[in-house]
Amino acid sequence: MRFCMVTTFYPPFSFGGDAIGVQRLSRALARRGHQITVVHDVDAYAALHEGPLPDPPEDDDGVRVIRLRSGLGTLGPLLVHQLGTRVLGRRRLRRLLSSGQFDVVNFHNPSLIGGPGILTWPRDAITVYTAHEHWLVCPTHVLWRSRRERCDRRHCIRCTLAYRRPPQLWRYTDLLPRALDRIDVVIALSEFSRDKHREFGLQREMVVLPTFLPARDAVPLLSGNRPHGRPYFLSAGRLELIKGLDDVIPVFRDLPGVDLVIAGEGDHGEQLRRVAAGSENVHFLGRLDPEALRDWFCHAVATLVPSVCYEAFANVVVESFREGTPIVARAVGPLPETVTTSGAGLLFSSPEELKSILARLLRNPAQREQLAAKARAAFQARWAEDVVIPRYLDLIRGAASRRGMVHLLAKPTSPTTGTVG
Fold first, then answer.
1. What is the C-alpha to C-alpha distance for residues 223 and 344, in angstroms, rounded to an integer?
2. CA 105/CA 123 separation, integer angstroms
3. Prior bond of 326 cis (ω within 30°)
4. Which of 5, 152, 280, 342 is a plausible cystine mate for 38, CB 3.0–4.6 Å?
């Protein structure tokens, strides 16, 4: 099949795990013989990024990449944000999506590449929307009200102003519901996220399909060596307030025999370093390549996932489980769901509870190994590429069957390689 992935951000023009997830999906489909084109917006990345732009790779594992630039800097994404549709470069993107050259168009994060307005542009393709965040019901994507607390009811204009962003008046029209009516399949990454979308007013049916990673033996470790001399717990991801490390770092002052290792960078990094000042057992690694992180996952006592916000899904969980490392997670958002279904983690609700759990895991290596075995088993059963990709393709074939597009129902018989543009 011929796929087009439409997303605001795509590596290396990206910030977090969502764009990496789009890249993994694209590459996984390409390996299975599908033709993949990714369209993303460089201007949107430049508007939010300080410093020079990265150099894109010459090859993306058989994925064709189209990088949109208007030549007018931040004006393009600002107009999308305010009007809910693409203005600069509109003709090029609309012609691409409506040309009939794709069998499937999968929208990921369209917030600054075209908003809801572009969801209706594909004509003769199966259309999919994957909700990596809560943008469909939240202007700030994360349901973190006014930069200080989890959102339980709508105060969108006041909240958006707290983020120093102009309100999106198109959200008070029927633009988004009408656009979603044209989408064949809408995907949530967790049961929690599907329920949260419904709670905040989304009427459209969603199916749950989690993120994935290639199997452990499909991607060799860089070294397999232990990267740290002392026992340690690992935290990996962007350093933001909503990731919840502020009340975790002080816990390690009372655990001198173990280290906290933090991988990642972000706009909250300097504040976290101030919180950790004087704590010799807290270490900041900076941003690491995902594959370089695998050694750190492998040898950690557990991975800490202390997010205080309503994430759609925590990608770091799957990265940890693939390496057979359990998680210790805050009982917020989709994390209780993940721990319950996998049996591969422990939940905390307060710093005192977290301290008790960490000390117990250190004293009881057998419990840690039991959780590790469940992590490996849960990954293979629920989040391995060879489990999730067939489910994804079944969703598309189901939509094709409902629309009478019989030419999409056959499975590819041999792999092909796309070109990079």
1. 25
2. 10
3. no
4. 5
Per residue in 101-126, pLDDT tens? 999 999 999 999 999 999 999 989 99
Residue 68, strand partner residues? 41
The model's pTM is 0.92
- The β-bridge relationship of strands 207-208 and 185-188 is parallel
Distance, in Å, from the CA atom of 48 to the CA atom of 44, rounded to the nearest integer, reads 7
* 38 class by beta-carbon count within 10 Å (0-12 exposed, 13-18 middle, 19+ buried): buried
In a 3-state reduction of DSSP, which class is residue 188? Answer: strand
Does one domain contain both 312 and 350? yes
Residues 238 and 182 in one domain: no
Please indicate, yes or no, if residue 415 is contained in any of the structural domains: no
Burial of 204 (0-12, 13-18, 19+ CB in 10 A): middle
Query: CB–CB of 130/185 below 8 Å?
Result: no
Task: Of 114, 49, 39, give the one whose Cα is nearest residue 81.
Answer: 114
Q: Which residue has the tokens 């203005």?
A: 87
Task: For residue range 8-29, list pLDDT tens digits in order.
Answer: 999 999 987 899 999 999 999 9
The range of the structural domain enclosing residue 230 comes to 216-382
Question: Residue 62 has which token pair?
Answer: 């058989």
Cα 85 to its chain centre, rounded Å, is 23
> Residue 8: CB partners within 8 Å, gap ≥ 6?
40, 41, 44, 45, 77, 108, 109, 110, 111, 112, 113
Residue type, 144: W
Q: How far apart are CA 228 and CA 232, in angstroms?
A: 8
DSSP state of 68: E
In the three-class reduction of DSSP (H, G, I as helix; E, B as strand; rest coil), residue 121 is classed as coil
How far apart are alpha carbons 358 and 352 in whole angstroms?
10
Task: Give the CATH number, domain containing residue 24.
Answer: 3.40.50.2000
- The span from the CA of 13 to the CA of 57, in Å, is 11
Report residue 396 as tokens: 């598309």
